[in-house]
Amino acid sequence: MATTATISIASDIASGFGGINETMTLTQAGTLTDIDSTTGFQIRKLSAASAVDLVTIANELVEPEDSQAAKIYIRNIGYKGVIDKSSYVTIGVKAEPVGRLYGGDWMMMPLTNIDADDVTATPETDNTVVLEYVMFYEEA
Amino acid sequence: MATTTAAVTLSSDLLSDNMSVSASTTCMKAGTTADGLDQIEYGYIDVVTGDQFDLLGADDDDGTPVAGVMASKANKVYIKNHSTDETYYVSIMIDAQDIGRLYGGDWMFIPWNATTDDKDIEITASGGTNKIEYALFHQGKTLVAS
Fold first, then answer.
1. Which residue ranges form the domains of chain A, and what is each CATH number?
2. Structural domains present in chain B
3. Which of A16, B20, B84, B88 has the most other CB atoms within 10 Å of its CB?
4. What phi, psi does B9 have (nearest 5°)?
């Protein structure tokens, strides 16, 4: 079965936009060999409007290979069943903000997995919010 | 209200208990529950090797240092590498920070802050000319008078 990710985007913004439906099989860099390592599925509860490392690359038990084909999935699942579309968590790499995950939003992003390039999360407010995430990568 | 939904299904057999995750979100304007993103840029380009290019610019078309009304909003970006050679890849960067690589067949879907004019989404091809599909869903940008 390997590891696969399928995205489906539908939109009525423009009548000519027919939607996007794509599946990728997560493979090791430059090969057709399946990716071999994962953090497993995790959740992280955040209750302060300050930046934290969601993933500290250097602390992974299985050391990731640098600059390969790693991917991370992250979703803002709110807290206790309440998904707040009006507040967000800013996801970043190292010190660079990538974007805001509002309640219910998800993302799939490639990663360098270089030790310095930790994945960061900064909630907008002190209100508790939970992120679910899983990272796939190659073992060094 | 325009409606844009993005769904993902993720499955893996790396763990002994196979993992399957499904999620869907309706892409709303920043901080609202009643108004969806209503503008789109959608394209398909060849990216040649040798240079770094701005795939999506955070500055206005005339280069003025304003990120327009996209700034600090709920923009979403989809990028797929349609190259059929698995050794080809593009490196994705934001404001000179390496984010990661999309090899042939890979896709990504991220929110994009575009807080300032230097937060462009930059792309560099390796291996050969990469074929890239991209879409930006947003709530408007400042147009420049001709």
1. 36-137 (2.60.120.10)
2. 37-138 (2.60.120.10)
3. B88
4. -125, 125
Report the sign of the C-alpha dihedral through residues B53, B59, B65, B67, in that order. Answer: negative
**B140: chain A residues, CB-CB within 8 Å:** none
Q: Does any CB of chain B come closer than 8 Å to the CB of residue A31?
A: yes
Contact at 8 Å (CB) between A91 and A62?
no
Neighbours of B5 (CB within 10 A): 15
User: Could you read off the pLDDT of B106-146 as tens digits, one per residue?
Assistant: 999 999 988 887 889 999 999 999 999 999 999 887 666 66
If you write DSSP's letter for every residue of B39-105 in order, what string do you get? EEEEEEEEE-BTSEEEEE-SS-TT--S--GGGTTS-EEEEEEE--S-TT-EEEEEETTEEEEEEETT
Contact A85 B33 (CB under 8 A): yes
> Tokens 């002190």 correspond to what residue?
A126
The angle at the Cα of B141, spanning B136 to B146, to the nearest 5 degrees, equals 120
A10 touches chain B (CB under 8 A): yes
Predicted TM-score (pTM) of this structure? 0.95
Residues of B within 8 A of A112 (CB-CB) are: 98-101
Residues A8 and A21: their CA atoms lie apart, in Å, by 4
Q: Which of A136, A131, A82 is nearest to A109 (CA)?
A: A136
Residue A58 has pLDDT above 50, yes or no: yes
Q: Do B14 and A3 count as a contact with CB atoms less than 8 A apart?
A: yes
